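Give me the fold.
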Amino acid sequence: MNHPRILISPPLIIGIPFVTGMTLHWLVPLRMPLHGFGLALGGLCTFPAAAILIAARRTFRQANTSMLPARRNRALITGGPFRFTRNPLYLGLVLLYAGVCLAAAAVWPLLFLPVVVALLHWIVILPEEKYLEDRFGDDYRAYKARVRRWV
């Protein structure tokens, strides 16, 4: 297998619920409890998300391999943010999603976030892990044993 068999692109898994939720927020707004803290909480999610995403992108570039899950990996990346999580891109995107929703006091897309995380897990992460195990064997299994999937 040259690449993991991903049925739906991660940006679609994240983007469709986000856009749908923001549209519902605009059409049928729900009040967020403790709205005043939303901006602060959003920042607490958004800034680390940006740092994780930038570091992950840099690490992929240094390894000369693609960030796109539908492409073949040239290297098993275990440095940078991959030392702490096997999925820094997905972690960063989920934190960014949550941060924007909290800052905008948008309840609807937050309600969709558990579905987003479940879809990422079942449709993207598990096939990626199978591919990486097939591609890198014991090296990936050892990495998987010492680094958590999310955090």
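The chain has one domain: 13-21+35-146.
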